[in-house]
């Protein structure tokens, strides 16, 4: 009985991971950078004195990671290694099989499983000619969820909210592999 409960909880957990979207949220004006899988984990990059630190939560357990702090390390005794006289053989070069078209098709299909919930980009490239060329292109791309602007004042801001479903990416990858076999 307990085994069935554990197996059903495991299947429910895997189903949750595959069906719930991974959220990628970037907002440069408020310095908010976050990746999360609701109910499982959340990781945010937070600005601090030493450039940034990483704050997260995995299964409701909070943690912090400071990548730029020096840690105390135990000194290891140095061992003298004898020099090897033989040089290792070089591995054989792989031949190009000509399957880049299939890889590009897979990449495009995987990108289709990514949903852009909100994209706002206000940029200045410091090149007035390039900015002038970008204005009509951005006006063609703009929609309800995507707003791109080119300015001439030196401002740069990005708001990006992506939703990625791991289940649809896995389905696309398996479908591509099955097609390549037949």
Summarize the structure.
Helices cover 34% and strands 32% of the residues. With 182 residues, the chain is of the alpha+beta class.
What does this protein look like?
There is one protein chain. This protein is of the alpha+beta class. The chain has a domain at about 20-65 and about 110-180. About 35% of the residues lie in helices and about 30% in strands. The protein contains four helices and eight strands, in the order H-E-E-E-E-E-H-E-H-E-E-H. The protein has an eight-stranded mixed sheet with strand order 5-4-3-2-1-8-6-7. A hairpin with a 2-residue loop joins strand 4 and strand 5 (about 60-65). Helix 2 (about 100-110) runs antiparallel to helix 4. The longest helix is centred in the N-terminal third of the chain and has 18 residues, at about 1-20. The relative contact order is 0.16. The model has no long low-confidence stretch (mean pLDDT about 85).
Helix/strand layout:
Elements: H1 2-19, E1 21-27, E2 32-37, E3 41-48, E4 51-58, E5 61-65, H2 100-112, E6 114-123, H3 128-141, E7 146-150, E8 157-165, H4 166-181
Parallel strand pairs: 6-7
Antiparallel strand pairs: 1-2, 1-8, 2-3, 3-4, 4-5, 6-8
Helix pairs in contact: 2-4
